[in-house]
Give the backbone structure.
Amino acid sequence: MKASKVTKVTTHVLQEMKLRKEKISMLTAYDYSMARIVDGAGIDVILVGDSAANVMAGYKTTLPITLDEMIYHAGSVMRAVKRALVVVDLPFGTYQGNSREALLSAIRIMKESNANAVKLEGGKEIIESVDRILSAGIPVMGHLGLTPQSINKFGTYVVRATHEEEASKLVEDAHLLAEAGCFALVLEKIPAVLAEKVTREISIPTIGIGAGSQVNGQVLVLHDMLGINQDFSPRFLRRYHNLYEEINNAVESYIKDVKNQRFPNEKEQY
Ligand code: KIV
């Protein structure tokens, strides 16, 4: 069955989409109102990304957002969503280096927000955490390439895995995550040919962001693609709207109307 016909997208639906070469659409959302619009439009996957740290809270990196804050965003999204699969990022410091803590963090997200899956950044170094979360029956999405939670290690947001050593580690990690039982894999800001190779070699769907067209699906940050956030314009970003300007114009008109006593009019009062 075509994904557009399903009433609830599951991890199995995504797997079938890969098999029949139907592309997977994924966007972020962090609140009830936006999630309702995005889900209603028919998106396949909603990511409650830790990019909430940037676009919702104004932090420079994704590192400061807490597990409680992610659960708050995820719960708001879940109250709106009827059809999309909802995946929630485990925030920095809640899964690296301690698989028991990773499991407890994932369980809190699932129990307190009612989300469908979690996402973790990294490969071999976090595989114990991935295994333990999966063993509790919680679906896991992997994330390789540019992993923003490691920005202090990378030092920059430039394209990753352009050199042989990093590229082969990425391919190894992709196999490891797929074999462990992850249901999908995000590939961020890597060369298109490398993303294509990974997509061909592993059995689970790949979702790209700045990873070219030969992946199984695409993801963008909602505020970037709607043009709410004007400060961020990497090559891979396509802006579908200029909502910053639209909202700005609406607010300016409102201010003018209030100042000139054109709002409210007779019909807008009791
Ligand atoms: O947090 C996020 O929005 C993400 C996407 C960029 C994939 O991880």
Remarks:
- The CA atoms of residues 54 and 60 lie 6 Å apart.
- The pocket of 3-methyl-2-oxobutanoic acid is lined by residues 28, 47, 49-51, 89, 186, 188, 209, 219, 221 (CB under 6 Å).
